[in-house]
Amino acid sequence: MVIARPEWFKKGKGTFNFGMTWQGAVYLLATLSLIFIGMMLITTLTIGGLFLFLIIDAQYASLKTMDEREHLHYSIAMRNMAWGMIVTIVMVSLVMLNFNDEVNLGVLIVAVGLVGFIINVTTRYKLEKSN
Amino acid sequence: MKTKIKEHRKELKMTQEELAEAVNVTRQTIIALEQGRYNPSLILAYKVTKTLKKDHIEDIFLLENEDLNTKT
After folding, report:
1. A23-67, pLDDT tens digit by residue?
2. Class for domain B2-63, per CATH?
3. Which of A111, B3, B41, B52 has the fewest C-beta atoms lying within 10 Å of its C-beta?
4. How many A-B residue pairs are in contact by the CB < 8 A criterion?
5. Cβ of A4: how many Cβ atoms within 10 Å?
6. Which of A11, A13, A69 shows the shortest C-beta gap to B32?
7. Please, what is the end-to-end C-alpha distance for chain A in angstroms?
8. Cα end-to-end distance, chain B, whole Å
9. Residue B52's pLDDT band (boundaries 50, 70, 90)?
């Protein structure tokens, strides 16, 4: 990628210490702020594309700072998260269809995001303890 | 897998942080290696061995019987 630098997102000591530099913080803030700009502008699609690009760019940069053990943890956590999210989509949709005859997209997104986050954090914590 | 990283590292008066930097991994990975909780890749094992000024991987990493039965 072209903008984010790996050293901006170098992880510090401890599980939840991401040790981001000010450049990394500014980068993420600018990236996240694009959501709000996107709401106000007609060119939401362009902003959305840029937002996605920057998020993926940052993800790519942070991946480069990981060593082989962290790569392993990341991959396993992502796999578990993906499966958890797929199962949640199916289950929540089925429950909603059964009770409301329609799927509430907002609730579905929040539920899937929450489950994904919990699975990711739990997996990483367990792997950090055991491996 | 048992390792002798800690004792050889101390012989060289090297900290975990210094070893981690030398082999380009995090300190957490060095801790996991020293405690035998993580089996490194062949390349990392070589890097650690060379950094600790040993000739053979077997001088640092000791394969145990239970490792032979582990699925890889």
Report:
1. 888 888 888 888 777 666 666 677 778 888 888 888 877 777 889
2. mainly alpha
3. B41
4. 26
5. 23
6. A69
7. 30
8. 13
9. very high
Which residues of chain A have a CB within 8 Å of the CB of B32? 69, 131
The Cα B29–Cα B15 span in angstroms is: 13
The residue to which tokens 């942080």 are assigned: B17
Tokens for A80, please give them.
Answer: 């578990």
- Residue closest to A76 by CA, chosen among A121, A124, A14: A124
pLDDT more than 70, % of chain A:
87
Residues of chain A positioned with their CB less than 8 A from the CB of B26: 11, 67, 69-70
Q: How far apart are CA B42 and CA A96, in angstroms?
A: 50
The H-assigned helical ranges of B1-72 are 5-11, 16-23, 27-34, 42-51, 65-68
A77 or A40, which is more confident: A77
User: Is the pLDDT reported for residue A74 higher than 70?
Assistant: yes
Contact list, A9 vs chain B (CB under 8 Å): none
Give the mutation candidate from A9, A10, A67, A76 for the B interface (greatest B CB count, under 10 A). Answer: A67
Higher-confidence residue of B68 and B9: namely B9
